[in-house]
Amino acid sequence: SQQGEEDPQALSIQEGENATMNCSYKTSINNLQWYRQNSGRGLVHLILIRSNEREKHSGRLRVTLDTSKKSSSLLITASRAADTASYFCATDKRGSSNTGKLIFGQGTTLQVKP
Amino acid sequence: DVKVTQSSRYLVKRTGEKVFLECVQDMDHENMFWYRQDPGLGLRLIYFSYDVKMKEKGDIPEGYSVSREKKERFSLILESASTNQTSMYLCASRPDRVETQYFGPGTRLLVL
């Protein structure tokens, strides 16, 4: 079963605008990660936020985590055409052994128009 | 940089054929994973391995097996390919005590 659900499924914006995508999950977690996938390629890790953190920044990326609502958001500021990709959240379920099993959401497809 | 490679980018096979997908990582990672990715379903874990010769079933292991004879190599085997196994297959690896997974470029498999 899918742990994460992402919203929206697709997002189209103009270059320079900000893009926000959301992820909801069902169980308690150790951490939540965001990955990016360019068309037809593998996934690339973007950022990890732990369950005791509320906000994290990395360059133009800002991630928030609300464990009471079991949700996270990824904000990409000042978007560029090169940000066009699919974005996935992935959770590491609390209480699981150290196998590193991640449960991925269905992803948000972002298109940034030049 | 971590490098995870997969043996083929595209593969076309016939129903009933035995299919091998290979994944190699060059960073001595203990853990390796096989996922399949389908539109609207995201990534689903097929099998993972946390050490040489060790494996555990993921969420959708039916119709698949795996082999890990060497630390750097993790093979996914489709014993008798079926059309519903047409998909994108992604391999990933991860060292112990690090949560981030490193992905290969993927193999797009078409079973006719």
Commentary on this structure:
The complex is a heterodimer of chains A (114) and B (112). Chain A has 114 residues and is mainly β. Chain A has one domain: Immunoglobulin-like, CATH 2.60.40.10. Chain A is 0% helix and 56% strand. Chain A has no helices and 11 strands. Chain A has strands spanning 5-7, 10-14, 19-24, 29-37, 43-50, 55-58, 61-66, 71-76, 85-93, 103-104, 108-113. In chain A, strands 2, 4, 5, 9, 10 and 11 form a 6-stranded mixed beta sheet that branches. Chain A is globular, with a radius of gyration of 14 Å. Chain B is mostly beta strands and 112 residues long. Chain B has one domain (4-111): Immunoglobulins (Immunoglobulin-like, Sandwich). Chain B is built from no helices and 11 strands. In chain B, the strands form 2 sheets. In chain B, strands 2, 4, 5, 6, 9, 10 and 11 form a 7-stranded mixed beta sheet that branches. The relative contact order of chain B is 0.34. The model of chain B has no long low-confidence stretch (mean pLDDT 94). The A-B interface holds A 1-2, 4, 30-31, 33, 35, 40-45, 48, 88, 92, 98-107 and B 4, 31, 33, 35, 40-45, 48, 50, 56, 58-59, 88, 90, 92, 94, 96-97, 99-106, 108.
Q: Name the CATH architecture of chain B.
A: Sandwich
Give the amount of beta strand of chain A, in percent. Answer: over 45%
Listing every helix as H and every strand as E from the N terminus to the C terminus, the arrangement of chain A reads EEEEEEEEEEE
CATH architecture term of chain A: Sandwich
Shape of chain B: globular
The CATH class of chain A turns out to be Mainly Beta
Low-confidence sequence ranges of chain A: none
Overall pLDDT of chain A:
90
What is the molecular shape of chain A?
A: globular
- Profile the largest sheet of chain A: 6 strands, mixed
Regarding quaternary structure, how should these chains be classified?
heterodimer
